[in-house]
Amino acid sequence: FGEVYRGTLEDNTTVAVKTSIEVNEARKDDFTNEVIIQSQMMHNNIIKLLGCCLEVDVPMLVYEFAAKGNLQDILHGDANIPLPLGLRLNIAIESAEGLRYMHSSTSRTIRHGDVKPANILLTDKFIPKISYFGTSKLLTVDKDFTMFVVGSMGYIDPVFHKTGHLTQKSDIYSYGI
């Protein structure tokens, strides 16, 4: 992950532009993986990838803009935005809908691998958007194993941490935390 900048397209659409801090083959592979995965997903609760530029010194991904920032900062940071119970429930339900879509409605199963409040962005209307697919995996029905355990400590499914098997249950565990 690197820096995220706010930008404006020619039609005055506000976007988020994500760049990589490190520019090495592994980082470019993560960015390419993110493009491949996100290009397969179209859901209201998943951040929309609008474009990319991978053939430059510093790869860039262009996303729809989520004006309220991430859920972690709103709940526990300096954002100081009150969230009434009803709105919190809507955010939880809609985030779960995004996960359900990833797990069952795409041509190949997508496992996020790092579901946490910092990776749930909120629009100006508080619509949650699951984001950051750099560690996500495209898996076939018979393959749920990864050689490297990825994710954020405190949110990683203990079974995934122990076995390396990234399943739908791993994402659901992280969502529940």
Automatic annotation (TrEMBL):
Any one Gene Ontology molecular-function term assigned to this protein's record: ATP binding
The entry's keywords: ATP-binding, Kinase, Nucleotide-binding, Serine/threonine-protein kinase, Transferase
GO biological process: cell surface receptor signaling pathway
PANTHER family: OS10G0142600 PROTEIN (PTHR27005:SF145), WALL-ASSOCIATED RECEPTOR KINASE-LIKE 21 (PTHR27005)
Protein encoded by which gene: YK3
Pfam families on file: PK_Tyr_Ser-Thr (PF07714)
Entries under InterPro entries matching the protein: Kinase-like_dom_sf (IPR011009), Prot_kinase_dom (IPR000719), Ser-Thr/Tyr_kinase_cat_dom (IPR001245), Ser/Thr_kinase_AS (IPR008271), WAK-like (IPR045274)
Protein kinase domain ranges (all copies): 1-177
Protein name, entry field: Serine/threonine protein kinase
